Amino acid sequence: VQVVQSGGGSVPPGGSLRLSCEASGATWQNYVMTWYRQAPGKERELVADITTSIGTKEYADSVKGRFTISRGRGKAKNTVYLQMNSLKPEDTAVYYCNFWVDGTNWWGQGIQVTVSS
To answer: CB-based contacts of 43: which residues, under 8 Å, 6+ apart?
Structure first.
């Protein structure tokens, strides 16, 4: 299994980005998938997570109403997306995805998101 992230970049404030995190080669039926971010000089923080077995989603207060986590369908069921709208400069960070399956963590490589005018 290889976890690959895509979709980062640079946008002005108020812009949107969609991050993807694909677990290539995985045959998982269910997992917990978490998006984290880490800004320079700050600790890593949880942004959003999804527990597929029970269909729950949770968000950090700082992103509620602006970010949406979702799971792909069909052949993309082991891909998770993070739709980020109304981006703010304080959303600038390296974003990491993590799949937790049967006690094992699988990490993506991290991807930069920069929000700046």
So the answer is: none
* pLDDT tens digits for range 22-61: 999 999 999 999 999 999 999 999 999 999 999 999 999 9
Distances (CA, A) of 20 to 5, 98, 107: 6, 12, 13
DSSP SS3 for 8: coil
| Buried-exposed string 2-34: b where 16+ CB fall within 10 A, e elsewhere | ebebebbeebeeebebebbbbbeebeeeebbbb
User: CA-CA distance, 102 to 53, in Å (whole number)?
Assistant: 12
